[in-house]
Amino acid sequence: MSRSVLVTGGNRGIGLAIARAFADGGDNVAVTYRSGEPPEGVLGVKCDITDPEQVEQAYKEVEDKQGPVEVLVANAGITRDQLLLRMSEEDFTSVLDTNLTGTFRVVKRASRGMLRARRGRIVLISSVVGLMGQAGQANYAASKAGLVGFARSLSRELGSRSITCNVVAPGFVDTDMTRALSDEQREEIVKQVPLGRYAQAEEIASSVRFLASDEAAYITGAVIPVDGGLGMGH
């Protein structure tokens, strides 16, 4: 049976691959996006997750068109990389407000319908950087590490209502962002990965779909690394 799925930041990269994976599986999929055009084949909802009013309006639109959200994938995020001594307050707080507080906003709103239905799947997209750290990304790493504690707390709060909350932590993924790096930078990154290559966005999407499936009904509070071995031990 088709479910109502919402993917935040779903108009490109990992988010788009996740949205397409659910749509290909027969689900009704909506994606939020801040700029550009929404992808074809899914419901595009313009929304900046740092604005609570836009989040509420986005949910109302999704609920009107495909019913209460049964699967939420919180993927929207930004980076503002800078070494600590050069990092401004705004660099730090803007990343936290989007990546962590923005996730709080969309999860809180989705949980309302899930609690009523006594079922639901929540998947948060973190990063290997949140587990092992990265110079120049203290803001990003802090925001992505925060998702782990957030998810595990929600697992304890919502588990009695058959709502699972898990985290996927991707490593380096072949997206427009990483393709913009120089060949030398790309080669240096690959040297750190035991599998010796970048992930494809579809490989991240497969793990997300699994966590939202019936087969994963007894998995909650888990952190699933999809990083080619990069972060092992963290």
From TrEMBL:
Belongs to the short-chain dehydrogenases/reductases (SDR) family. NADP(+) binds at residues 9-12, 75, 140-144. Homotetramer. This is 3-oxoacyl-[acyl-carrier-protein] reductase. One of its GO terms (molecular function) is NAD binding. NCBIfam families: 3oxo_ACP_reduc, PRK12826.1-2. GO terms for biological process: fatty acid biosynthetic process. The active site is at residue 140. Catalyzes the NADPH-dependent reduction of beta-ketoacyl-ACP substrates to beta-hydroxyacyl-ACP products, the first reductive step in the elongation cycle of fatty acid biosynthesis. It catalyses: a (3R)-hydroxyacyl-[ACP] + NADP(+) = a 3-oxoacyl-[ACP] + NADPH + H(+). The gene is fabG. Pathway: Lipid metabolism; fatty acid biosynthesis. Keywords: Fatty acid biosynthesis, Fatty acid metabolism, Lipid biosynthesis, Lipid metabolism, NADP, Oxidoreductase. InterPro entries: 3oxo_ACP_reduc, KR_dom, NAD(P)-bd_dom_sf, Sc_DH/Rdtase_CS, SDR, SDR_fam. Its EC number is 1.1.1.100. Residues 3-176 form the Ketoreductase domain. It is an enzyme of class 1 (oxidoreductase).
